[in-house]
Amino acid sequence: MKLVKIVFKNVFRHRLRTVLTMLGIATAVMAFGLIRTIVGAWNAGVAASSANRMITRHSVSFIFPLPLPYRQQLLRVPGVTAVSWANWFGGVYGDPNDFKNFWPRLAIDPETFFDLYPEFQVPPDQLAAFKKERNACIIGRKLAQQHGFKIGDAITMEGDIFPGRWEWVVRGIYTGRDQTVDETQMFFQWNYLYEQVQQREPGRPVEAGWYILRVQPPDAMPQVTKTVDEQFLNSRAPTKTESEKAFQQGFVQMSSAIITSLQVISIVIVGIILLVLANTIVMAVRERTREYAVLKTLGFSARHLVVFIFGESLLIAVSGGVLGLALTYPMVAGFGKALPTFFPVINVAPLTVVLALGAAVIAGLAAALFPATRVVRTSIVTGLRMVG
Amino acid sequence: MTRIPFSYIWRSLWARRLTTALTLGGLALVVFVFAGVLMLARGLEATLVETGSPDNAIVLRRSAGSELVSQIDRGTASVLETQPDVAPAKDGRPLLSREVVVVINLYKKQTNGMSNISVRGVSPQAFELRPSFRITAGRPFQFGTHEVVVGRNIANRFKGVAVGAELSFGGDRWAVVGIADAGGTGFDSEIWGDADQLMQAFGRPVYSSVTFRLRDPGQFEALKARLQADPRSQSLEVKREQDFYREQSQAMANFIKILGIVVTTIFSVGAMIGAMITMYAAVSNRVVEVGALRALGFRRRSVLAAFLVESVLLAVVGGLAGVGLAALLSFARVSTINFTSFAEIGFGFALGPGVIARALIFALVMGLIGGFLPAVRAARLNIVNALRAS
Predict the structure, then answer these.
(1) Could A268 and B33 be called an inter-chain contact, meaning their C-beta atoms sit closer than 8 Å?
(2) Which one of B29, B69, B258 has the shortest CB-CB distance to A272?
(3) Residue A262: domain span
(4) Which positions in chain B touch A338 (Cβ < 8 Å)?
(5) Is the ipTM of this complex over 0.90?
(6) What is the DSSP letter of A122?
(7) Cβ–Cβ of B26/A282 closer than 8 Å?
(8) Which member of A196, A351, A384, B69 lies 3.0 to 4.6 Å from A161 by CB, making a disulfide possible if both were Cys?
(9) Per-domain residue ranges for chain B?
(10) What total of structural domains would you count in chain A?
(11) Do B262 and A34 count as a contact with CB atoms less than 8 A apart?
(12) pLDDT tens per residue across span A290-307
């Protein structure tokens, strides 16, 4: 017990230095937490994907549409219990350089889409109103908040893939079933897109961007992939069918370079924590060289001294780590607000908490290693002779 | 005012080598990350800006942010061909390329991850229009056939892409007959083939964009006004090619910058605290020394300056080390999807004088802020008490 008391006394001997070190570690742990959370947010689409949904898209790439009659053929595939489809609309809203003005806009089949995506919760009366009106749209809660859109408001934008001026009326606002659901999307009736393009650009085909399949039981997925893709292999539009998770992962992988660099940075952070802490411990031990020699003379063994040094290092590291974690939450919230469209879903994962504290503990141990060995090796006489 | 000799500062740092080294290491790592982020954003911008030529103009459909979503029908493309501002090619025809851009999926060699690759269908004049695009292996593709040449980034990074190989997309097989080096521009990350063949294969009756050489780049504004007034081309938008590609890099480069600046700002707080710890320790270890200096007649200002210089020296050396480390990144190449064009783009970390200057100023500021409070404490020491301290 007395040994613990010595550790505490030592920690607060240089109050300013200890506080500064803790703050240094706290900022680094906060950066670590933030970066891990950003990487997590990047994977949010993968994490939120449903286990029983599959996506069928054109095998060449996502930008090529699939013929409409595929729907009936897909419904006949064993294991497929429901089919819906959607198109990417794109479009330019307001100033295109403002990140806030970019959010996903999808043309969807009003009858089937929300059945396949139960995580987008729309009040039944709003859904009914949406289905009744051709140019109605349903938007996410966060999107509505960011732009102050209310039910009955009109949203207009310039089309790019589908040129011209487009206007919708907000008829519903969906909320996510839980916090992993992206609440920044906008859905409108696919029929509206189809009819408008027929009018504006006669002769331009409008097909389905991709199909969404509900597969029951989920074990049937590999078989569904095989059946569907073989069926369309030699047609005008060959398909690629994969689980929603794999589909989302495909997008994440395309920007894997950014994720890799973020991961490298998070390792660099652990290095910085280590350096700041090691510096403090080295200085503390250096100043106390004579003291340690006296303790040795009094009969304290090398083991005791090692416990003092490691205890001090760990105590500072862990307090700094806890403080840093506490700061991570407001930081993440602020960051999510600054870049809402890049990170519609941003939450601190439990694993991040564990890893951040783990990094602090490892740094605490590593920082004490070198000074501790030095103290153990220094003979009493050399220690006593030392001039500060 | 008498200044404290520089050798005093230098020797003080040397006396506590381990602490000095640890502080330097921390500062160097922070500057490394800071410089790395700037280099990445600059590399992306440089790659895309160099893709465009100041003498070329590109025409897309109005409000189309990228070639992928733009559509120009054949009739409208012909209107452009007859404009007097289009420079003639060597054979006397207009130096103009009608192009179609689609993306296909290929798999990376290293990670087996899938990515979007731009496939650009071009007119025969495209090679004269973009002299940077040179075939380095194999031969150019023949117009009228299902042959393609691939940029070197694609050939290096993706599976099944080599001279003699076949790619299958658009319901057909395409023979890879050559590898192109486009001098570090965005074309290094593209596949080129015959526009007409590709349009037919993909069932796309319209072009994506039209690019041409300006007879007189100074007349660009006049051309722009004339195209806007002409009812046949009102749905189009003409841009200088270089401006177009700069816009293509904007969203991604801004994203890298915002992310990088947030992260490095947090880091720099950590590094400043590190410098502060070191400098406070330096002051408290040298109380008697400071007393002696003051007794010798050095003024408070000189003591303040000496400690500040010590801190700045630490920061600048740390900063140089960080920039040196970051310079090694120039050898690395990265590729990622560009949000705007929705296609893979390969680029490097580009170190330039601007990046070096900003990284060093950043280090300098960290040193000044980190060293200021400890230096003030040293300067305020009372001579008698300081000399008495043990």
Answers:
(1) yes
(2) B29
(3) 2-44+256-385
(4) 258, 262
(5) no
(6) -
(7) no
(8) B69
(9) 6-49+248-388, 63-234
(10) 2
(11) yes
(12) 888 888 899 888 888 898
